[in-house]
Every structure is written in C-alpha cells, then in structure tokens.
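User: Can you recover a sequence for this backbone? Please restate the input before giving your answer.

Assistant: Of course. Working from this structure:
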C-alpha cells in the first residue's frame, strides 16, 4: 500500500470518528429539545380536547392544520383511530427520540355526534432532527473530500520529489555518481537537492581520490618490489657471489697461510656486510625491534637511527606512564612516527624535531613538532598523510596536522585510553 493510500485511510478514519462524535452530540442535544417540545405539544392536545368537548367548531381544519407536533383528524363513521404512518428510518429515529406512550392518539366524541382524533405527531420533530443529521453528514463529507483533494495535491508534489530522489539513488547505487537533482520547489526540496548534490560530489571526489591512491599504492608496491629485487641482486647477491668465490679459493691456497688468512678476513667482512644488509632489509619490511624491546626503547631507537641518517637534531621524550598497547597498535604507532619523520626529512626543511609521547587525563598523546618552513595543508592528502590518518583511525584516535608557512609542522595524535 502506497503512502498516499495510508494517509487517505488515516484521514477517513479521523473524519469518521469526528462525524460520529458530532452525531452523538447532536442526538443528545435533540433529546433535550424534543422533551421540551413534546411537553408543549401534550399541553396543546389537552387544551384542544377540553375545547372540543365545549365547542367542536373550534377544531376547524383551517385552524388546526398549521399546528406543530399536533394532528387533528375527524373520523368517519365506523373508522378506527390510527397512529401516524412513518417509514422505517423515521420509525427508528422516533423510537430513539420519543417515548412510545406520547404517540398514542386520543379519540373524543363531541356533542354533535362526530368523532375526532387528537394526537401528538412527532414527524415534524423527526424531520428537523433528520435534516440536521443530513446537513452534518453533508458538511463532513464535503470537508473530507476537500481534505483528501488537498492532501493528494500536497502529497503528489512531495512524492514527485521522492520519486526523483529514489531514481537518483538507484543511479548512484549503480555507480553513476554524476547524477544531480535540480534545486527547485519548496525550500525543503531545494535543501534536499543541495545536500544530495553535495553527497554525490563528495562520493565522486572520494572515488577519484581512491583511484588515485590505488594507482599510487600500486606504483609504490612495484617500486618497493623493484628496490627489493635490486638490493637482493646488486648488493646481497654480489656479497654472496664473493663469498662463494672465496670459499672455492680456499682449497687452492691451503698451502699458503697468508693467502688463507687474507681470504678468511675478506669472508668475515663480506658476511658482516651481508648481515647488515639483511638487517636493514628486514627493518624496512617489519619493525622487529617491537618484538624484543619495550615501546619506549623501540621508538627511541627509531629516532636515533633517523637522526644519524638525516643529520637533524631529533629529541624524544616519553612519559613514565604509558598505556598498554596490543602488538597491532604498537605497529601502527611505530609506523605513524616513522612516516611523520620521513615526511619531515622530505618536505619540512627543518633543523630541529621534538617528539613527545605521554598521557594526559583520559587520553594518551603523540606530539611531533619541527621548526621547518611549514606550508598550507593540502586539500587532498597524499599517500603518506592518508596512511597516517588510517593508522590513527585504526588506533581509535584523532590525528590533527597544524601548519602555517614559516611556522613549521605540528602533528598531534590523541587516543582515548578506553579505546587503546
């Protein structure tokens, strides 16, 4: 069932209740009015009966035919008195409004030998009440019809907007993000169209950003694979080739102690370089230090190594009280700091960096500040900033990046303790 039909049914039900209540009130008021009218009619009947006994000529038709609620009828010889004839509806309404005893006719034998019937006749009062009920029903029916037409006109306009919105949403769900609604009609419709268009603009921009980030991530993945392959082939592979050649040389120079000693020293040197290369490779792939050192010491080692490579003064201050983090949360925090330091080395042109990790109230906070050149925040973050925001979201916290040209960068991560 459509919304329009449901509204129509509710309105019809409401009008039915109102009509029944008005009819009940009208009948209740009619009972009191009829009581007074019938009392007056009974008094008239009693007066006419006494008058007819004294002066039958006073009951002439031209004098009695205009009486309300009273009927005077002269009976023919042998004719019996009868009650006023009423149809079924009038009879039902008469039983509801009038007592049965008050409808009995009085038959009088006058002095001239004729017989006259004088009775209270409720048909006038029934007609009045019935006319009032008909007027009430007609008025309610007209009001219901006007209400339904007004609702249909108003709802049709709203349903037209909903149909357009539903069609647009179906297009959006099908991947057509270029659909837009026309801003027209009532203010609510214009606001709905404006917000829908803003939503589709945001979705289209998000899809474009996701496409761009996906392409960048794929390019970075291929770059990392290429760099890994070059490292294994050009650096570690050369050391392995040298070690193999030197190992093959040893049996040939076994009778030359000096050559054997020099070859052994070269083997030790190549093995040391090979081990350092593997350690650097593993460190780039995964922070192994998190498995063997506490979080504060692992971060301190990261800052120390970064300072040694970049030549930038970097100080880490860690509070005594730190929250207990899970292994994935430690990795997210470590990588976030690593990415932030990498961005500083690439873009900040800073000579001093300060890192603080501590707890304040119901949050723990990571703050990174530098004295570099600063810049306006980009409208669309790159892969580095995007990855930091995603890691902050994984930690259940909020990442804020504040920068002004010439004032350096400030990065603040706030995480509620109950989340961490």
């Amino acid at each position: 069932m459509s919304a329009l039909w449901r509204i129509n049914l509710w309105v019809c039900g409401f009008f039915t209740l109102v009509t029944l209540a008005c009819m009940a009130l009208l009948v209740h008021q009619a009972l009191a009015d009829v009581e007074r009218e019938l009392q007056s009619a009974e008094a008239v009947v009693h007066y006419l009966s006494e008058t007819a006994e004294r002066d039958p000529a006073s009951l002439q038709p031209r004098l009695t035919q205009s009486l309300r609620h009273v009927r005077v009828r002269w009976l023919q010889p042998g004719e019996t008195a009868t009650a006023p004839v009423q149809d079924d509806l009038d009879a039902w309404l008469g039983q509801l409004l009038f007592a049965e005893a008050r409808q009995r006719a009085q038959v009088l034998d006058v002095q001239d030998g004729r017989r006259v019937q004088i009775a209270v006749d409720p048909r006038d009062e029934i007609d009045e009440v019935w006319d009032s009920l008909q007027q009430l029903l007609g008025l309610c029916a007209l009001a219901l019809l006007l209400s339904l037409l007004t609702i249909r006109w108003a709802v049709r306009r709203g349903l037209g907007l909903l149909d357009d919105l539903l069609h647009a949403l179906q297009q959006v769900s099908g991947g057509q993000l270029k659909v837009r609604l026309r801003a027209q009609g009532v203010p609510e419709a214009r606001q709905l169209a404006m917000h829908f268009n803003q939503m589709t603009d945001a979705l289209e921009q998000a899809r474009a950003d996701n496409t761009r980030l996906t392409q960048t991530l794929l390019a970075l993945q291929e770059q990392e694979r290429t760099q890994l392959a070059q490292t294994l082939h050009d650096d570690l592979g050369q050391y392995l080739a040298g070690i193999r050649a030197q190992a093959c040389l040893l049996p040939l120079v076994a009778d030359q102690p000096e050559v054997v000693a020099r070859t052994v020293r070269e083997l030790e040197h190549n093995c040391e370089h090979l081990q350092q290369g593997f350690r650097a490779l593993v460190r780039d792939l995964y922070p192994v230090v998190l498995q063997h050192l506490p979080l504060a010491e692992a971060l301190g080692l990261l800052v120390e190594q970064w300072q040694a490579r970049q030549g930038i003064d970097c100080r880490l201050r860690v509070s005594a009280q730190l929250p207990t983090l899970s292994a994935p949360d430690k990795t997210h925090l470590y990588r976030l700091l690593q990415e932030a330091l990498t961005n500083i080395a690439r873009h900040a042109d800073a000579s001093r960096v300060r890192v603080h990790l501590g707890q304040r109230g119901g949050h723990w906070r990571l703050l990174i500040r530098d004295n570099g050149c600063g810049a306006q925040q980009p409208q669309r973050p790159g892969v580095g900033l995007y990855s930091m925001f995603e890691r902050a979201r994984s930690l259940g916290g909020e990442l804020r990046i504040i920068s002004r040209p010439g004032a350096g960068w400030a990065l603040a991560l706030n995480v509620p303790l109950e989340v961490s």
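That completes the design. The two ends are 49 Å apart (CA to CA).
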